[in-house]
Amino acid sequence: MAERESRPFPPGEYPVVVVGSGPGGLQAVYSLSRLNIPHAAISADPAPGGMFRRWPLFQRLLSWTKPYAPGGPGSRSFERSDWNSLLADEPDCRALQARHMDGTSDFPSRAEMEANLADFAARTGLQIRYGCRWEGTRREETAEGPRFVLTTSDGEYRCRYAIFAVGVAEPWNPPVPGIELTHHYADVRPAESYADRAVFLIGKHNSGFEIATGLLPWARSLVLASPSPAKLSVTINSLVGVRARYLQPYEDYVLGGGVGVVDGSIEKIERADGRMLVTVRATKSGEAMRFPADDVINATGFTCPLLDLPKLGVATFGSSRLPAQSTWWESASTPGIYFAGTITQGQAGLSKHGIPPNSGAVQGYRYNSRILARHLAEKRFGVSLKRPALEAGRLASYLLDEATHGPELWHQKGFLARVVTTSVAEGVRDEGVIPLAAFLDEGGPDGVALTIEADGTSAIYPVAYVRKDGAIREHQLAPKAMLAFESEDNFKALA
């Protein structure tokens, strides 16, 4: 009992409760702390890290950190090439990932990422009640307004606003006859246990190709199958495709190296002669194909562990049960419930050219968490945020510098924007980085929102959305071969 009470944030009432201690939760807790917003933070895990305490299975992340990037550690330019560190005001708490890498790859190992997150929590002094499992939620009406009650393994927490940063980490199994004979990505065994075995993988996204890459030296044969063709990041010019570092199995397939990549739907899985038999219906021809296998691994993804939030009115969509969210990551159907971390990919923004934001990855949602904390501070707690004055004559130069170096714009292309407003009373003011959709949809004084966009062809360029007298006009600036947009023609166009 004494140990339980000595931990931070005992059960009780708090203005805000954050659930989760993965990167999204840590960034939200840090940002709320630095804005002096009273809150509690709880986590079922025994220490920081979230999903990176377990995954990826074969140890290397998809996101890079380049230790010798331009600008040096701690600079905003460096942040563009550091996809894995969290954001901090204190110089000695920035760019921590590079300090935990051994130099063998610019993709951190799982253990290096976990160490980076633990270091961030320690250096910034984050207070989190670990070992406190969220078990359910209800809503109560009080004289001061509605309250959410979070039941946990330690007791009940009451709050006006709840932020759930619980990840997309609950294994999902498709409704296929015989799926119980498979094992999920989350339960994959050590690679050597698949030695000399025929392995069939359901799914052709990153998780499927990650497993295939890890099993290439061990499995006798590998087959990856799903209804749609594999989308490769290097051909669709987007991070939503299979990343290049997992393409060895695909190359083996193309060159006839003993790997099969099949476009077809899984009809059933059954036992036959002491093994398993997978029946696949080819997408194009409709032919029924049968594949014998010693192991069938389901790499079809995860869902959000929302527990009873849908019963509380939280609307979800898609097989991952992502919650529908407002521009500011609030539940679209249950006000007062917010989301942080990888769940924020449920807010797709404009998704111009069909390209979604990077909110499913650390380099994207770390900014979402910081912006969410600032939004709550200003709109819910009356905190007056700084809006620095800018010289009107330097506005074009300032915005082009942001286009070239601003990490928020680069990591959340077409989703986040640097916003500057102009008025007779206040002059030119830097409003900071906010969701582009908020600038376009919510109105406000005259101003400009600058973002970086990509059209899926490899072209990357700045776009300025200018609002004047309530009307918004879109201005695309010129792309540049080396992505340095501070050119004379762009300056003239933007000015």
Low-confidence stretches: none
Based on secondary structure, the structural category is alpha/beta
Bin the strand percentage: 25-35%
Radius of gyration: 24 Å
- Secondary structure tally: strands: 22
Supply the number of helical segments.
Answer: 12
Task: Report on this structure.
Helices cover 21% and strands 27% of the residues. The chain has helices at 2-6, 23-34, 76-80, 110-123, 206-215, 233-236, 248-254, 362-379, 395-405, 407-411, 436-441, 488-494, and strands at 12-19, 39-42, 134-142, 145-152, 155-164, 170-171, 183-184, 198-202, 221-226, 259-272, 275-282, 288-293, 295-298, 302-303, 316-317, 322-323, 337-339, 416-423, 427-435, 447-454, 460-468, 471-476. The protein is built from 12 helices and 22 strands. The chain is globular, with a radius of gyration of 24 Å. It is α/β, with parallel strands linked by helices and 495 residues long. The model has no long low-confidence stretch (mean pLDDT 94). Strand 8 (198-202), helix 5 (206-215) and strand 9 form a beta-alpha-beta unit. It starts with a helix and ends with a helix. Strands 7-13-8-9-10-11-12 form a 7-stranded mixed sheet. Strands 1, 2, 3, 4, 5 and 17 form a 6-stranded mixed sheet that branches.
Describe, in short, the structure shown.
The strands form 5 sheets. Strands 7-13-8-9-10-11-12 form a 7-stranded mixed β-sheet. Strands 1, 2, 3, 4, 5 and 17 form a 6-stranded mixed β-sheet that branches. A 5-stranded antiparallel β-sheet has the order 19-18-20-21-22. The protein has helices at 2-6, 23-34, 76-80, 110-123, 206-215, 233-236, 248-254, 362-379, 395-405, 407-411, 436-441, 488-494; strands at 12-19, 39-42, 134-142, 145-152, 155-164, 170-171, 183-184, 198-202, 221-226, 259-272, 275-282, 288-293, 295-298, 302-303, 316-317, 322-323, 337-339, 416-423, 427-435, 447-454, 460-468, 471-476.
